[in-house]
Amino acid sequence: MIFFLTLYDLSPSLSIMSIMHCSHLSGMNLTGDIPLGLTKLSALTEIWLDANSLQGSIPDFSSCSSLKIIHLENNQLTGELPSYLSKLPNLQELYVQNNMLSGKIPKGLLSKNLPSNFSGNKIKGVDNGKSRSNITLWASVGAALLLIATLISCILIHKRKKSYSDRGKFNDLLPPKRLVTLSNATTDAAHCFMVNEILEATQQFRKKIGSGGFGVVYYVQIM
To answer: What does UniProt give as the signal peptide span (predicted)?
Structure first.
């Protein structure tokens, strides 16, 4: 019964105005405008008027400097979001979704970055169905995914560098290739001759012995 008195019968002379801290009236099937008497509760810290059928504009709660939580969602409120909302020093939550509000969100509210929801209205710059808390959540998820992708890239690059390094070490373990010439040829090694050595040994291909299935045969003198 105290709450109904608060809504409809409060006057500045009632002492309850100076001691009432919370107005919990969610889902009470209330109709009409938000009572101006609530704006005179100087000690008010929380307003819960969501899930009713309240109409009209949001009244001036600028004198309620202790306000921390405002829930006015799921009503039929009209008009613009009051600019004083951005100046409430202790405001921590603001939910006004699913009304018929219009205009723009006060710049000061956006800079506060507090949990809020303005969807389901005709407010400019607001995507219906998305609250600032959801946007913050998706931003955090995106940052986490970016960090994971960066770590995976670093791991792959490190593995690739290690593979190249191991390949170089393996090549270092292989015996060096040796070019066998007339001067260092041995009986147990494959003979590889330089062109100038072949020309010298055949005397510029002067002494032809004959020809066969493997081509022309020349006389070679190895010193």
So the answer is: none
**Residues 152-193: pLDDT tens digits?**
888 888 777 766 666 655 555 555 544 444 455 555 555 666
Indicate whether 70 belongs to any domain.
yes
**Across the chain, how many H-helices and E-strands are there?**
4, 12
What confidence tens digit (pLDDT) does each residue in 63-115 have? 999 999 999 999 999 999 999 999 999 999 999 999 999 999 998 888 888 99
Tell me the three state secondary structure of residue 153: helix
Question: Quick one: 187 exposed, middle or buried, by C-beta within 10 A (0-12, 13-18, 19+)?
Answer: exposed
Q: How many CA atoms lie within 13 A of 143 on its CB side?
A: 6
Number of domains, the chain: 1
**Alpha-carbon span 70 to 16, nearest angstrom:** 20
Q: Measured on CA atoms in the order 127, 130, 133, 136, is the torsion positive or negative?
A: negative
**Whole-structure pTM value:** 0.53
